[in-house]
């Protein structure tokens, strides 16, 4: 029985292995089919003009069949329309991406080639760039509208460049770009009908981005110092470094104090809410304890007589040796009632009585003394 069981299990495992391998093969085929249906720019960067994919695409183009503007606009082109767009593309932003999108969608079935100028060319003709040419090449080739990137693009386009790269149209904005001789760089292309105009994105340009950085220079330097950059990396002096670090510390203290005050405010609101919830219970328990029918009032009524006896002086004894109830009641009344204020006439009469007593005592003493002297 055990041998049969092991044999059956081995057969089942073989079947599952076969089914698992077939499922993997089916999944791989499905993924390959999906990738074939998706545009190459979605899952991989655009190739450079010297790479094999770009070379194959260029060689497959029948450039002898020229495509005119009328054919491109009427969707009668017999092949892919090769459109070329060039620029510096420093600090690649949404304005650049929008320009490339317009170049990609200006006609149907467009193969977009983007030429990026090198550092040496750009620094000589336009000025210093923030990004290096390699960084700008990589930024452009990862834009989804781009099919091919041409490194070290020329500043001015001639006929030989168009033939070598099999370019049908050149896409750029309509603003004239003047060369050293005072003419528009794209004048010849416009005359041949090979120029396609694109719209610039207002308020967004590399110059605008650089102007924001220059305007908020101190803030960005402080941020980078806080992130670990040195004064040498940021090209600032020793005193400026210390000043920026002190400002960072002050900002940290401000933020910390704001957080502390916020937590205190939250706790205060919490306490008020809890007090409002418990206040009714506190009031009820207080009234039950100190109210008219509470235990405190009963205790006071029971012990009131004992307290009065403890604080009031004992009354004078009677001949029988017992305190009369009249004396006890009078003492209680004296204890309860405040002392009565004496009037002015009463004070004068009391003072006269005191003077008479003093004179009588004086006469008495003198009379004794005189009697002693006479004897």
UniProtKB/TrEMBL annotation:
<dbReference type="InterPro" id="IPR045049">
    <property type="entry name" value="Pcy1-like"/>
</dbReference>
<feature type="compositionally biased region" description="Acidic residues">
    <location>
        <begin position="349"/>
        <end position="358"/>
    </location>
</feature>
<keyword id="KW-0594">Phospholipid biosynthesis</keyword>
<feature type="compositionally biased region" description="Polar residues">
    <location>
        <begin position="9"/>
        <end position="24"/>
    </location>
</feature>
<keyword id="KW-0548">Nucleotidyltransferase</keyword>
<feature type="region of interest" description="Disordered">
    <location>
        <begin position="310"/>
        <end position="375"/>
    </location>
</feature>
<dbReference type="InterPro" id="IPR041723">
    <property type="entry name" value="CCT"/>
</dbReference>
<dbReference type="InterPro" id="IPR004821">
    <property type="entry name" value="Cyt_trans-like"/>
</dbReference>
<keyword id="KW-1208">Phospholipid metabolism</keyword>
<dbReference type="GO" id="GO:0004105">
    <property type="term" value="F:choline-phosphate cytidylyltransferase activity"/>
</dbReference>
<keyword id="KW-0808">Transferase</keyword>
<dbReference type="Pfam" id="PF01467">
    <property type="entry name" value="CTP_transf_like"/>
</dbReference>
<keyword id="KW-0443">Lipid metabolism</keyword>
<feature type="compositionally biased region" description="Polar residues">
    <location>
        <begin position="318"/>
        <end position="332"/>
    </location>
</feature>
<comment type="similarity">
    <text>Belongs to the cytidylyltransferase family.</text>
</comment>
<comment type="pathway">
    <text>Lipid metabolism.</text>
</comment>
<protein>
    <recommendedName>
        <fullName>choline-phosphate cytidylyltransferase</fullName>
        <ecNumber>2.7.7.15</ecNumber>
    </recommendedName>
</protein>
<comment type="pathway">
    <text>Phospholipid metabolism; phosphatidylcholine biosynthesis; phosphatidylcholine from phosphocholine: step 1/2.</text>
</comment>
<dbReference type="GO" id="GO:0031210">
    <property type="term" value="F:phosphatidylcholine binding"/>
</dbReference>
<feature type="region of interest" description="Disordered">
    <location>
        <begin position="1"/>
        <end position="24"/>
    </location>
</feature>
<dbReference type="InterPro" id="IPR014729">
    <property type="entry name" value="Rossmann-like_a/b/a_fold"/>
</dbReference>
<feature type="domain" description="Cytidyltransferase-like">
    <location>
        <begin position="84"/>
        <end position="211"/>
    </location>
</feature>
<keyword id="KW-0444">Lipid biosynthesis</keyword>
């Amino acid at each position: 029985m055990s041998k049969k069981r092991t044999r059956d299990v081995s057969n089942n495992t073989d079947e599952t292995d076969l089914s698992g391998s077939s499922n993997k093969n089916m999944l791989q085929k499905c993924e390959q089919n999906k990738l074939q249906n998706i545009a190459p720019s979605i899952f991989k960067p655009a190739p450079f003009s010297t790479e094999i994919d770009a070379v194959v695409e260029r060689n497959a183009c029948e450039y002898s069949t020229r495509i005119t503007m009328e054919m491109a606009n009427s969707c009668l082109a017999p092949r892919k329309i090769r459109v070329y767009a060039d620029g510096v593309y420093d600090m690649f932003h949404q304005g650049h991406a929008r320009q490339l999108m317009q170049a990609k969608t200006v006609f149907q079935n467009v193969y977009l080639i983007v030429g990026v100028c090198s550092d040496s060319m750009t620094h000589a003709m336009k000025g210093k760039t923030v990004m290096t040419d390699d960084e700008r090449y990589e930024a452009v080739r990862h834009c989804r509208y781009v099919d091919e990137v041409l490194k070290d693009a020329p500043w001015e386009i001639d006929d030989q460049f168009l033939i070598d790269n099999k370019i049908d149209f050149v896409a750029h904005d309509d603003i004239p770009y003047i060369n050293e001789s005072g003419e528009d760089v794209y004048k010849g292309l416009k005359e041949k009908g090979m120029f396609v105009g694109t719209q610039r994105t207002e308020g967004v340009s590399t110059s605008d981005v650089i102007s924001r950085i220059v305007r908020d220079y101190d803030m960005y330097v402080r941020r980078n110092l806080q992130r670990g950059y040195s004064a040498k990396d940021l090209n600032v002096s020793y005193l400026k470094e210390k000043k920026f670090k002190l400002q960072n510390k002050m900002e940290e203290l401000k933020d910390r104090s704001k957080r502390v005050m916020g937590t205190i405010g939250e706790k205060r609101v919490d306490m008020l809410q809890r007090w409002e919830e418990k206040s009714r219970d506190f009031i009820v328990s207080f009234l039950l304890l100190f109210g008219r029918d509470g235990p405190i009032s009963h205790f006071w009524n029971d012990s009131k007589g004992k307290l009065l006896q403890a604080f009031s002086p004992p009354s004078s004894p009677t001949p029988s040796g017992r305190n009369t109830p009249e004396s006890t009641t009078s003492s209680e009344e004296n204890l309860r009632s405040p002392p009565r204020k004496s009037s002015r006439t009463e004070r004068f009469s009391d003072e006269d009585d005191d003077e008479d007593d003093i004179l009588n005592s004086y006469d008495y003493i003198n009379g004794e003394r005189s009697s002693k002297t006479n004897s």
